[in-house]
Amino acid sequence: MRRDGGQTASDLLPAVVVAVVTMGATAVIARTSEPGLLPEWAGYLILAGTAAPLAAQRTAPARTLVAVMAGALCYQAFDLPGGAFTIAPAVAIFNAAGAGRRIVAVVATPVWALATYLLGARWDHAPDTQGMVWLATWLAVILVAGEVTRGRRERLRAEREKAAQAERAREEEARHRVTEERLRIARELHDVLAHSISVINLQAGVSEHLIDRDPRQARAALGAIRQASKDALVELRSMLGVLRAVDDDGRPLAPAPGMDRLRELVERAREARLEVSVTLPEARSELPGMVDLAVYRIVQESLTNVIRHSGAGHAEVTVRLTGRDVFVEVADDGVGVPGGGPLNEGNGLVGMRERVMAVGGEFTAGPVEGKGFLVRARLPVRSAAA
């Protein structure tokens, strides 16, 4: 309600101001001018009616211009005191040009000037050459001023739109980053929990089976459970504290796991009764953090799948490093795809694929001819580091 009322008041204000100024100036001019065909009060009424359409100049600038010029010509047709009646048309021309109705403004201006001249000639007081030059100059200035105003408004509108687009782009980027971070944390949690719980489950079964027959082996299995759970808790605390970047004691968090911890990963798999051979590059250059972590997680998830699903007795981990890429392969001698059906990618394979794609690499996974399953990934080093 207030907004509508405020908008109505702002629309009416120009019309009221122009009407007051026009009638005041005409009252001064009328003192030294001859009376026209109509009474003085009728002339003031026409002037008020001429200014009234300016209330609609914001919503209908072209029609406002036509109505104002018609009123001004009507005033002049009755040979009323001249001069001030041109104020309302000048305002209407300016507003029409400023609103982008340049064709209407450019066409209506000379038509109105010509009609003004002809009506003045009818009453034997047409403007002389100097008067017409001044009138033409004044109208040209008004048109140019309206065009400049329109250009400024369009620039401001374009700048506001550009700023709004930039803000929307920033918001979209922020949402994208939040989504990516959620996916990253989900992948991390899945990889850590799936691997550790798989090892714990297997070792718990071994311990339960050997607790009476071979307490020594059962104790070793319980120790492996203890170590796997401890490692999982350390990694979980590290991930849950990522927003603070420090641990509970205020110390910097341990760096994310990478290639330097692959042998620990292999040893843990061996403790789960899986024979694992590993081939790592002798000379290791420092890898970008995302690539280093991806190598570790790919091997971790692959060994987890071998332990949980493949029924394999042996797995082979190979990591090769060239000047441009890191190649990771994990192969096993298990059953491949159970039942020989199509490959069903679970969260583990999807997570590995997403990690590889995030750094611009290539990923394949599937059964091999004969027996077993192969996971293969190529991780570009340079593009990830850029």
TrEMBL record:
Please give the organism. Answer: Microtetraspora malaysiensis
> What does the record list as coiled-coil region(s)?
153-181
The catalytic activity of this protein is classed by the Enzyme Commission as: 2.7.13.3
Enumerate the catalysed reactions.
ATP + protein L-histidine = ADP + protein N-phospho-L-histidine
Residue span, Histidine kinase domain = 295-383
Annotated protein name in UniProt: histidine kinase
Q: Has keyword Cell cycle?
A: no
Gene3D superfamilies given in the database record = 1.20.5.1930, Histidine kinase-like ATPase, C-terminal domain
* Single GO MF descriptor: kinase activity
Q: Read off the InterPro entries from this record.
A: HATPase_C_sf (IPR036890), HATPase_dom (IPR003594), His_kinase_dom (IPR005467), Sensor_HK_TwoCompSys (IPR050482), Sig_transdc_His_kin_sub3_dim/P (IPR011712)
Keywords, comma-separated and alphabetical: ATP-binding, Coiled coil, Kinase, Membrane, Nucleotide-binding, Phosphoprotein, Transferase, Transmembrane, Transmembrane helix, Two-component regulatory system
Membrane-crossing ranges are 12-30, 103-120, 132-149
Q: Does the keyword NAD apply?
A: no
UniProt enzyme class: transferase
One Pfam entry name: HATPase_c
